[in-house]
Specification:
The protein is mainly β. It is 0% helix and 50% strand. It is built from one helix and 77 strands. Strands 1, 3, 4, 71, 74, 75 and 77 form a seven-stranded antiparallel beta sheet that branches. Strands 42, 43, 44, 45, 46, 47 and 48 form a seven-stranded antiparallel beta sheet that branches. The two termini are 28 Å apart. The mean pLDDT is 91.
C-alpha cells in the first residue's frame, strides 16, 4: 500500500531547548541556534555585528586590559584596571581621567576573638594544603601574662582545625610574634621568658594540633629594645633580632631545612627602633633597622651563607627614627633595588616614608608618601607597582574612632580599605606578613575591634584577629545617580565628568591641638570642622564633622591645628581653589548652633603634603551670627565613609550598597535631592538575619528592594528615613519561599516581567508577584558558565547575558515570541567575549578582558571584520510518532535573501548526529527565496537538519529563515530495527 504523502511545516519561532531530552524536543524548538534573533515575528534573522573602538591611549600606548565599561551621560568610559578612561570620538582615542581607580575586591573574615584582647597579629599560608595559620598575643584575661595563641584554618572549607590554642612556653612572651611557612610546617617565632629569650615552635601541616615544644633560638635578647623579624629565603629560615651581645648588636642567623641553627653574623649597632629582614632572588639576606641612638635608618646585606657582606652596614637616612619598617623590590629595576617603607612618629600623627636602596649601596632620596597614617602590614609588588598596608589611628588628643587600614601605592593613592572604624590602629615594631594566596590575591592577618565600650569612665577596645584579603583585577560595577557615576571596588569611587575620586571622604578631620594668643574673643566656645568639596557638577560633598573642641577664653585668639587629608584623589573641583577645603564652624558664646567661621570665597584649603593645617579664629560673635550653619544643625545625620561595597544598586532615589566585609547588612544613602550628591551615614544601616550567609546581589522590583543570598531571596519595602533619621519605615528583609538564590550580582537585570538572575541552578525570573520561575531551562546546557554581565538592550525586547566562555545567551521577551508557558525564546550569540556591558548611544556595548570595546552597529554583520555565521539545528523530527516508521521525501526551505551567501544544509538520521548528506545552496536574490532538498535516504524514524550560511568575502546579513516544510509519508507500527536489535 502506497504511503499517503503530506506536508508538515516546521516554524522557526520557538527558540532553543537544551533541557529536554534531545530525542523528544518538540518540532519547532531548536537544539541549536547560533547568532539568530527573533526581531521579526516568526522569522530568524542574523544578529547585527560590532565595530571596535580604537584601543590606544591618547598620547601613545595600547590598552591591553579591561575590567569595566559604563555610559555616563553622553560619555563612554572604561576601566583598564588602574584608571578610568574616557573615549573621545573626535580623536578616536581614550584619554585618562584624573585620579586613580584600581578595581579591587576586599573581604574580611573574623578568625579568633576571645575575652582576652589580642595584639601583634600575623598569619602564614601553606599553598600545598590550603591551610593558614594565624597567631597573636593575648594581653589579658588569662591566668598568665601575654601568651601567644594560634589558630589554623582550612581556607577551602573555612573549618577551624585549631582555635586559639596556647603556644607552649609563650607565657610572658611580650608583644611580638611571627609565623611563617617553612617546608611542611608553620613556624611560630616569639619572645619568651619575659622577653629575654627568642624561641620557636613548629606546627605540622599534616597534624596542626600537634604543636611542638618550644625550642630556644637565642637567650641574649636586648630586653630594653626587644624586636625581631623573620623571613624564609629559599630553603632557609632567617632571623634578625636585637642582641645584647657585643655591646648591643643586630644579630642574624638562619635555620636550615633540618632546623639546624648557624652561628650567624652581627653588626655592632642597637636596633632599638624597628627591624626587618627580607630576601632577594639572588638569595641575599637584607636587613634594615632603625638605630634610635644615632637617629639613623641603617641597612646591610649578607650573602646566603651569612659568610660575608654583599653590602656593608651603612646609614640609609640620618635624622629619622622608624617604629616600623618594610620593603619590597622595585619593579623594572631588576632584583637589586629595594624600596623601603618606614613609619615616622610625627608630633600628632604618624607619617609613612619611602626610599630606595640598591645592593651596590646607592641610596635614593627619602620622601613622604602618606601623612597621618602608620604602617599596618608588609609591602608587596604586583603588576609593576609596589603596595604597602597603612593604618589610621587618629590623634591621641581626641582618640577619634576612625581606625582603618588602607592599602596604598608608592604614590600614596588608596586602592582598598579594610575595617573602617574598627581596624587595629598603630603597631609598634611589628608588621603583619602579606601572603600571596593566588594570582593577584593578597592577604593579611590583622587586628580588628571585636568589642568596644567604657570601663571606669575610659574608652576601651577588645581586639580579635581577622583575615583581610584584597583581589586585584576585580570586575567593576557602576551605578549612575545624582549626576555622577559610582563605581564599586576596594572603596566606592565617583566620577563627576572631570575626575574620579573616592566617594565622600575616607576620614573626617580632627582638631589635634589648640592654643591661644593675642587679644580677640571672650567666652566659652565649641568648634567643629569638616572637609568640603564641590564637584564638577556643582554638588557639595561634606565629611562628618570632627569631634568638638570646647574652650573658655578671655580676649584671646584661638589657633586650631587641624589634621590635613593626605589619603585623597580629589585634586580639582568647583571651589575657588579647586581643592578640598576645611569648613570651620563655631558656636556663639555658650551657644549650641555651629556657624561657619571660614570665608566661602577664601577657604582654608587642604594640603596633602602637610600633616596639619592652622586656622586662627579672631571672629567676634556678631560677625558670624548671620553665616551659614553646619549641615547637621537641624538634626541631619552625619555623613560617613561607606565601607568597600560588594555590590551596588538603587532603590527609591537612594543608593544601596552591601559592604564586602559585613555582607549581612546593607547601607542606604540619604534620599537624593537635586543638586546634592549621594550621601551615606553609618546610622543608615540595616542588619539582617545572618542565616544563609551574606547578601550577594540585589535590585529593585516595583516597590520592593530584592536582596539575594546564595540560596535564598527576600525583599524590603518602605521609603526609608528622613535625613534626620526619623520616620524610617524600611521593613526587615522578608524571605520569599523559593528554592534558589543568586550569588552573582553581575547577572541581575530588570526587565518588564521582573528580575532575571543567575542562580546556582541556572537563570531564573522573579516575577512581579514575587514568584520565581526557571526561565533558563531552555539554555540549561550553559549553566556551568558564569554570567559576566546582564543587560536589557535599548530599543529591543532582548536581555543579554554574557558568559565566561565567550558566548552570550539572548532572551527575547516580546509577546509575539512567547510560548504556551508565557516564556520568551532563547538564542546564543558567539564571539562575545565580554567582562562587562552597557547601553551607549542606544547601542549594546561591551568590553573584553583584553580592553577591546565593541559596540553594536546597525547594518553591520561582522564582529570587527570577522564573519558571523547564522546556524540552526532542528529537533529530531519524528513525524510518525516517537520511534514510528516514516518516509521523508524532501524538504523545502522558505526564507528571504539579504546578501550574497551559500546555504549549507546537513542531514542526520535516527538520533545519530553523524551527518550523512550535505548540500550547498547558492542563495540568489530572485524572489521567492525557496529551495528544495531531496533526501538520498528516505526511510527513517527521525530526521534532523542543520542550516548554516557561509560567505567567503564581503560579509553581509546573508539570509533570513522563515520556515521549513517536510514532505513525509507514514504508516502504523514501529520503526523497523535490524535483526541484531530484535529479541524475544
Amino acid at each position: 500500500m502506497a504511503l499517503q504523502k503530506q506536508n508538515v511545516p516546521i516554524s522557526f519561532k520557538r527558540g532553543l531547548d537544551s533541557k529536554t531530552d534531545p530525542k523528544q524536543v518538540v518540532p519547532g524548538k531548536l537544539l541549536a541556534l547560533t547568532n539568530g534573533t527573533f526581531i521579526t515575528t516568526d522569522r530568524i534573522d542574523k544578529r547585527q555585528g560590532y565595530t571596535e573602538y580604537a584601543h590606544t591611549y591618547s598620547g601613545g600606548g595600547t590598552i591591553t586590559n579591561g575590567v569595566g565599561v559604563a555610559s555616563y551621560k553622553n560619555e563612554l568610559t572604561m576601566l583598564d584596571g588602574s584608571q578610568l578612561l574616557s573615549y573621545s570620538p573626535s580623536e578616536a582615542q581614550w584619554s585618562q581621567v584624573t585620579g586613580l581607580i584600581e578595581p579591587t575586591a576586599v573581604t574580611t573574615t573574623p578568625i579568633y576573638q576571645a575575652s582576652a584582647s589580642q595584639s601583634s597579629a600575623d598569619s602564614s599560608f601553606h599553598a600545598g594544603s590550603g591551610l593558614q595559620c594565624f597567631v597573636s598575643t593575648s594581653t589579658f584575661g588569662f591566668s598568665f601574662s601575654n601568651p601567644v595563641v594560634y589558630t589554623v584554618v582550612d581556607t577551602v572549607s573555612g573549618q577551624k582545625l585549631v582555635s586559639g590554642a596556647v603556644v607552649p612556653s609563650s607565657t610572658s612572651a611580650g608583644t611580638m610574634v611571627k609565623v611563617v611557612t617553612f617546608g611542611s610546617y608553620f613556624v611560630i617565632v616569639f619572645y619568651a621568658s619575659g622577653g629575654t629569650a627568642l624561641s620557636y615552635c613548629t606546627v605540622p601541616v599534616a597534624t596542626p594540633s600537634a604543636i611542638s615544644a618550644a625550642v630556644l633560638l637565642a637567650n641574649d635578647v636586648l630586653t630594653a629594645h626587644a624586636n625581631f623579624d623573620v623571613a624564609v629565603i629559599s630553603t632557609r629560615l632567617f632571623v634578625a633580632y636585637n642582641s645584647s651581645g657585643g655591646g648591643n648588636s643586630v644579630h642574624t642567623f638562619y635555620l636550615d631545612a633540618a632546623f639546624t641553627k648557624t652561628s650567624g653574623a652581627a653588626v655592632a649597632h642597637d636596633a632599638n627602633g624597628a627591624i626587618t629582614i627580607f630576601g632577594d632572588p639572588s638569595l641575599n639576606a637584607w636587613v634594615v633597622y632603625s638605630n634610635d641612638a644615632g637617629s639613623n635608618l641603617r641597612g646591610f646585606v649578607f650573602n646566603f651563607n651569612l659568610s660575608g657582606f654583599t653590602l656593608a652596614d651603612q646609614v640609609v637616612t640620618s635624622g629619622t627614627s622608624a617604629v616600623n619598617i618594610t620593603a619590597s623590590f622595585v619593579a623594572g629595576a631588576g632584583t637589586t633595588t629595594a624600596q623601603l617603607f618606614w613609619e615616622f612618629v610625627d608630633i600628632y600623627l604618624d607619617d609613612v616614608y619611602t626610599q630606595t636602596l640598591t645592593v651596590a649601596g646607592a641610596i635614593g632620596s627619602a620622601s613622604i608618601i602618606a601623612r597621618n597614617v602608620g604602617l599596618g602590614g608588609k609591602s608587596f609588588a604586583y603588576g609593576g607597582i609596589n603596595y604597602v598596608l597603612t593604618t589610621y589611628q587618629g590623634s591621641a588628643v581626641q582618640s577619634a574612632p576612625q581606625q582603618t587600614y588602607f592599602l596604598i601605592t608608592t604614590a600614596g593613592k588608596v586602592v582598598a580599605k579594610f575595617m573602617p572604624t574598627s581596624g587595629g590602629g598603630y603597631t609598634l615594631r611589628h608588621l603583619s606578613e602579606v601572603n600571596n594566596l593566588a594570582a593577584g590575591v593578597y592577604q593579611y592577618g590583622l587586628l580588628q575591634v571585636s568589642e568596644a565600650g567604657l570601663f571606669s569612665g575610659l574608652n576601651f577596645n577588645i581586639y580579635g584577629v581577622s583575615s583581610s584579603t584584597v583581589t586585584f583585577g576585580a570586575i567593576a560595577a557602576s551605578v549612575e545617580l545624582a549626576n555622577s557615576l559610582h563605581v564599586s571596588g576596594g572603596f566606592l569611587s565617583v566620577y563627576d565628568g572631570a575626575q574620579v575620586a573616592e566617594h565622600g571622604f575616607h576620614l573626617y578631620p580632627e582638631i589635634v591641638n589648640s592654643s591661644v594668643s593675642d587679644t580677640a574673643i571672650t567666652g566659652t566656645y565649641s568648634w567643629v570642622v569638616c572637609y568640603e568639596w564641590v564637584d564638577n557638577q556643582g554638588q557639595t560633598h561634606r565629611s562628618a564633622p570632627s569631634l568638638p573642641l570646647t574652650r573658655t577664653v578671655a580676649n584671646k585668639a584661638v589657633t586650631l591645628n587641624i589634621s590635613a587629608l593626605s589619603l585623597t584623589s580629589k585634586t580639582s573641583g568647583s571651589t575657588p581653589t579647586g581643592a578640598i577645603s576645611i569648613g570651620i564652624y563655631r558656636t556663639l558664646d555658650a551657644g549650641t548652633i555651629y556657624y561657619r567661621v571660614t570665608d566661602i570665597l577664601n577657604p582654608v584649603s587642604n594640603d596633602t603634603t602637610a600633616s596639619t593645617l592652622t586656622f586662627i579664629d579672631t571672629s567676634p560673635d556678631g560677625s558670624i551670627q548671620g553665616n551659614g550653619t553646619l549641615y547637621t544643625t537641624d538634626g541631619e545625620v552625619d555623613n560617613s565613609p561607606i565601607p568597600a561595597p560588594l555590590f551596588l544598586t538603587s532603590y527609591k532615589q537612594r543608593m544601596i550598597a552591601v559592604p564586602a566585609e559585613t555582607p549581612t547588612s546593607w547601607w542606604y544613602s540619604k534620599q537624593i535631592v537635586p543638586g546634592s550628591p549621594v550621601e551615606f551615614s553609618d546610622l543608615f544601616v540595616q542588619n539582617e538575619d545572618q542565616r544563609g550567609g551574606g547578601f550577594l546581589a540585589g535590585g529593585q522590583l516595583d516597590d520592593k528592594l530584592v536582596l539575594f543570598k546564595e540560596n535564598t531571596l527576600g525583599y524590603v519595602v518602605g521609603d526609608g528615613p528622613a535625613p534626620n533619621g526619623s520616620g524610617n519605615d524600611f521593613t526587615p528583609w522578608q524571605i520569599v519561599q523559593s528554592d534558589t538564590g543568586c550569588n552573582n550580582a553581575a547577572s541581575v537585570v530588570a526587565m518588564p516581567d521582573g528580575l532575571m538572575y543567575q542562580s546556582p541552578k541556572g537563570i531564573y525570573l522573579l516575577d512581579r508577584s514575587m514568584k520565581d520561575h526557571y526561565i533558563g531551562g531552555d539554555v540549561e546546557a550553559y549553566n556551568s558558565y558564569t554570567v559576566t554581565s546582564a543587560l536589557r538592550v535599548d530599543g529591543t525586547t532582548q536581555v543579554r547575558f554574557t558568559l565566561s566562555n565567550g558566548t552570550a545567551l539572548v532572551y527575547d521577551y516580546a509577546d509575539t515570541v512567547k510560548d504556551e508557558r508565557g516564556y520568551g525564546q532563547w538564542s546564543v550569540f558567539t564571539g562575545i567575549s565580554a567582562v562587562a556591558a552597557t547601553n551607549y548611544n542606544g547601542n549594546y556595548t561591551y568590553i573584553s578582558s583584553a580592553g577591546r570595546v565593541r559596540t553594536e552597529a546597525p547594518g553591520v554583520y561582522t564582529d570587527a571584520g570577522a564573519f558571523i555565521q547564522l546556524s540552526l539545528t532542528t529537533s529530531w523530527l519524528s513525524l510518525a510518532g516517537l520511534q514510528g516508521f516514516q518516509r521523508v521525501y524532501s524538504s523545502e526551505i522558505l526564507g528571504q535573501y539579504q546578501s550574497p551567501h551559500h546555504l549549507n544544509v546537513q542531514v542526520a538520521y535516527d538520533f545519530d548526529p553523524t551527518v550523512v548528506q550535505t548540500d550547498d545552496i547558492v542563495g540568489t536574490s530572485v524572489a521567492p527565496y525557496q529551495y528544495r532538498v531531496d533526501f538520498a535516504r528516505q526511510k527513517c524514524e527521525a530526521i534532523q537538519l542543520t542550516l548554516k550560511d557561509t560567505q567567503a568575502s564581503g560579509f553581509g546579513q546573508g539570509l533570513s529563515l522563515s520556515a521549513l516544510t517536510l514532505q513525509v509519508g507514514s504508516k502504523g507500527g514501529l520503526n523497523r530495527l535490524s535483526q541484531t536489535r530484535n529479541y524475544g
